[in-house]
Inverse folding.
């Protein structure tokens, strides 16, 4: 049997290691005034940095703000009549407040004026005053420098989504806050698609724009473990990205459907134990639980799958690694995880993977290992190296890991118990895990790779992962 050492995942940004195989790389109550906007402070991003690796500041900062506002107003003026049968009333220029410490916006309604500390790092729409305000001193300049022009535009599009909701009578206190926020994210996605389709008179969707949107949503997601019924909840990174993707993929009509059929919120509140641990398992504990759990799950989903002969780590500092008649020195085996078809096993650089677990969270580790189970399944189904290495092959594996993740969500919500009343599956998903997977898909994907979405392949891979979570293995095409 010909030896197949399938190394598909390279993380030069994490380890400095490089792969010479040439194969594809895998590289967020009624009557009272409602202030809707971003969380006051961004939540620390899960996993590695999701910030763009290329310069996406295509326009000067002030020009970005001015053109984005004009374009979003034009979008709603053009699109609201066709979807809702009524005209959009643009927000007057004197009701748009770019504020700083010394230039605060007016109070919202009859409430007290927020302190400068409360206002900094925020952007919001005030229903009672019908105005939009944003921190022009700290928040927007920081977003511009960290994520690029489109991150600023995205926040503005989100806030104009709230203004549109108010004009449609949706911000009256009868709609759950998190559902309003999801719809505003969807509206932002619909506007982005409008720009991408060339409908904008002054803006275009440049390479890296979607990465900026995804990274920004993960940074401004709710803290892991937040209860979705919290009146300040915006949604997990998974929820926010999915809503944005709905708008980008299907337009404003898809967002309108949220009013009668809001999407299922995937935010998972922490248990008492998870509050202590942050929802992350130590590396060795994770591997001890993850390998047998994935073994059992994939066998149940794919009865023809031949169980792995092993799934083990090695230390390249003290040993090389062999797959059939192919041997890698310790130096060549550094920073790698791969499936070996000769003995049907998965091997990985253990110190490297343990470091990812510490730095990026246990679900980043789970993503990497699960992707290799996907390689094993593809190889056993007869896929050749080219098919496995293709972008279609990578997205199929991302979908598979998503389906596995969804099974853990189902088990958490409706656990299967043995005859003694104990959970059959010993591994559980926690709040923040799905966000860790999305952050990893962004940070492990080169921003220079462009897919069907018109931007980086991260957007397409995240779509595949989310489809797997929501629809199971039927979405993956195995």
């Amino acid at each position: 049997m010909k030896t197949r050492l399938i190394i598909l995942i390279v993380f030069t940004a994490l380890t400095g290691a490089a792969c010479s195989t040439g194969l594809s790389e895998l590289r967020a109550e009624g009557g009272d005034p409602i202030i809707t906007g971003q969380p006051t402070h961004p939540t620390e991003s899960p996993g590695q940095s999701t910030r763009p690796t290329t310069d996406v500041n295509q326009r000067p900062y002030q020009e970005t703000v001015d053109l984005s506002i004009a374009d979003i107003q034009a979008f709603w003026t053009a699109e609201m009549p066709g979807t809702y049968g009524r005209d959009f009333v643009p927000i007057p220029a004197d009701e748009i407040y770019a504020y700083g410490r010394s230039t605060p916006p007016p109070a919202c309604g009859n409430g007290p004026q927020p302190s400068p500390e409360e206002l900094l790092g925020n952007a919001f729409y005030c229903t009672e005053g019908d105005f939009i305000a944003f921190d022009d001193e700290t928040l927007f300049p920081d977003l511009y420098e960290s994520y690029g022009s489109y991150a600023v535009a995205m926040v503005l599009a989100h806030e104009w989504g709230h203004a549109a909701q108010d004009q449609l009578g949706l911000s009256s206190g009868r709609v759950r806050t998190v559902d309003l926020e999801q719809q505003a994210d969807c509206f932002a996605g619909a506007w982005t698609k409008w720009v991408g389709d060339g409908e904008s008179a002054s803006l275009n969707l440049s390479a890296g724009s979607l990465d900026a949107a995804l990274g920004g949503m993960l940074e401004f997601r709710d803290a892991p473990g937040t209860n979705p019924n919290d009146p300040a909840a915006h949604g997990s990174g998974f929820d926010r990205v999915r809503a944005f993707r709905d708008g980008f993929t299907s337009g404003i009509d898809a967002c309108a459907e949220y009013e009668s059929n809001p999407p299922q919120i995937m935010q998972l509140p922490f248990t008492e134990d998870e509050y202590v641990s942050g929802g992350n398992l130590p590396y060795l504990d994770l591997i001890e639980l993850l390998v047998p759990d994935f073994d059992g799950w994939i066998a149940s989903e794919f009865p023809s799958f031949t169980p792995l002969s092993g799934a083990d780590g090695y230390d390249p500092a003290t040993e090389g690694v062999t797959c059939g008649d192919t041997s890698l020195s310790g130096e060549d085996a550094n920073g790698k995880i791969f499936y070996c078809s000769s003995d049907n096993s998965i091997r990985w650089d253990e110190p490297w993977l343990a470091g990812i677990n510490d730095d990026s969270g246990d679900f980043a580790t789970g993503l990497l290992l699960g992707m290799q189970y996907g390689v094993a399944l593809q190889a056993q189904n007869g896929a050749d190296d080219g098919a496995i290495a293709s972008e279609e092959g990578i997205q199929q594996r991302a979908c598979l890991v998503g389906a596995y993740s969804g099974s853990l969500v189902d088990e958490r919500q409706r656990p299967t118990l043995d005859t003694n009343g104990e959970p059959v599956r010993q591994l559980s998903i926690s709040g923040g895990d799905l966000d860790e997977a999305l952050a990893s898909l962004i940070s492990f994907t080169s921003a220079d790779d462009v897919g069907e979405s018109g931007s980086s392949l991260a957007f397409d891979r995240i779509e595949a992962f989310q489809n797997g979570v929501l629809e199971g293995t039927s979405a993956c095409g195995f």
Summary: Residues 1-55 have pLDDT under 50 and may be disordered. The CA atoms of residues 57 and 148 lie 5 Å apart. The first strand starts at residue 5 and ends at 6. DSSP finds 17 helices and ten strands in the chain.
